Amino acid sequence: MQRNDLTAFLADKADDMKAENIITLDVREKSSITDVMIVCTGTSKRHVSSIADHVAEQANQQGIRLLGIDGEDEGEWVVVDLGDTMLHIMQEEQREMYQLEKLWS
Question: Which HAMAP family does the record associate with it (predicted)?
Fold first, then answer.
């Protein structure tokens, strides 16, 4: 799957689970770890974990290889790592505290 298609797919799957304030950041020139970061908000620990589970399940069904998922047990900030694209699902408090959009833009 091409980068733009993957980004759209991940954002769409997060939206399926009612993720809020979905933002895509192109970080190719700023990061050697990934090319694209998608940041979205979940309303509770359970919601954040459910978004991550849904996205991971849908990616697996499409044959998209996940490199890892981190933070599901805590449910405050979950990262779904797909290599060139990373999905950050955060509760509002963590999103305001870490301000990834500001950091990477």
Answer: Iojap_RsfS (MF_01477)
pTM to 2 decimal places: 0.93
The residue segments making up the domain with residue 52 are 3-104
Assign residue 12 the CATH number of its domain.
3.30.460.10
The 8 Å CB, 24+ separation contacts for 79-85 are 80/10, 80/52, 80/55, 80/56, 81/34, 82/6, 82/10, 83/34, 84/3, 84/6, 84/34, 84/35, 84/36, 85/3, 85/6, 85/7, 85/10, 85/34, 85/35, 85/36, 85/37, 85/38
